[in-house]
């Protein structure tokens, strides 16, 4: 029964046991300068990948890169670490700016011969109400729309890099409380910091489902898409909670997470599992939690929502969601010119 499986997800922390190497693979991770993004990068680097840290604070990310180079994951012997690691590279990416997303994609396409794994990890939560310079509510743009655009721009390169390319969208179980306000996507009439976050996390799952469907419809093989719930973890993503949710919210959340939920290493495991495990190589469009396929609920199962969100996202980017997906990707690529 699905409720028993979900109870196990809450009570136990599964670890990715795959020892797969990623030698010769290029992986892009957004928001890799802290939290689960940083630890995911450390693990993939230890597996021999060329890991690209796509972040907006370059000074901080340079320090993170040095830390990754000098400190292996817990599962790796330090003496063996430097003999078998991959490469690290840093690219500037500010998801609050669609121009920055396009510039980052252009630099990646120009400078990288291949891209095999894209992990859309960066995220914000509990922000005070604000819009980006593009006129989009910030949480929705950072957590969904910026990654939506980045993924579309990198897809042609991933096509050339396939087979066995993977796109992982980091979502959250909080999507169950979310809905997509298609008539007020910027939440100008009804903003709430948690409402905006759950809307964006639901969007991650819907995007995963629709992208998988369109890739299949276009007969594009060798690129699989996954949505993951990393777990409840104490990270910097909750830093604004005390000012936007209620006084002391950040302290309460972090204390609860530290006592009863996953640590950061445990929180990386499902993302790593979807990125490297052999068992997931033939899966696509699914939602994962605790290194296993998980059941989705409520609006994530609405059959009309994935396509409606896709069309809305295209309109926000001034794109027409053409029926022919190959033609559509060429149109998206022209936005970088």
Structural account:
The chain is of the alpha/beta class. It is 46% helix and 11% strand. Helix 6 links the parallel strand 4 (117-120) and strand 5. Helix 2 packs across helix 10. The longest helix has 25 residues, at 193-217. The N and C termini lie far apart (51 Å).
Give me a quick take on this structure.
The chain has 337 residues and is α/β, with parallel strands linked by helices.
Please, what is the average pLDDT? 89
Oligomer: single chain
Indicate the proportion of strand residues: 5-15%
Q: Describe the biggest sheet?
A: 7 strands, parallel
Give me the secondary-structure topology:
Blueprint: H1 2-11, E1 26-30, H2 35-46, E2 50-55, H3 58-70, H4 78-84, E3 87-92, H5 98-111, E4 117-120, H6 138-161, E5 165-170, H7 193-217, E6 223-229, H8 241-244, H9 249-260, H10 264-276, E7 286-289, H11 305-316, H12 325-333
Parallel strand pairs: 1-2, 1-4, 2-3, 4-5, 5-6, 6-7
Helix pairs in contact: 2-10, 5-6, 6-7, 7-11
